[in-house]
Amino acid sequence: MKKLLLAAVTGTAFASGAYFVSTQNNSYTPLPQLDYVPADTVFFWSQLEGFPYLEYLDVLPEAFKNTHQFDDLVELMQQSDTSSNERFFVRLMESYTNSLNSSEAFANTWGADNDFKMLSYSVGLLPVGRAKLANVETFVQTIKTAAEQSGVRYETAELAGLPITRFFIEQGDKKLFDIVVSTKGDWVTLTLDTAFNTEEDLKVALAATKPAKALSETNRVEQYINDYQLDGQSLAYLDTTLLVDALTAKNPQSNTTRMLDGLLGLLGSEDDLALIRNEACQQDFADMASNWPAIVSGTQKVEITHNYADIQVSTVFASTDKKVLDAMSNARGFIPEHAKNMGEAMISFAYGLNASKISPMVNTVWARFASAEFSCQPLVAAQAQSKDANPAALAMMTGMLGSLKGVSLSLFDVEIVEHAQNPGQPDFKSLNVLATISADDAEALFNIAKSFEPTLAGVTLPTNGSAIEVNEFLPAGYELDAPIYLALKGNHLTFYTGEQGKKFADTLTKQTVEANGMMAFSMNSDKFFKALLKGAEIAGEELGDEFEQFIGQNTQMQINLDVAEKGVVTDTQIMIKKL
Question: Which end of the chain is less enclosed by CB atoms within 10 A, N or C?
Answer without folding.
Answer: N
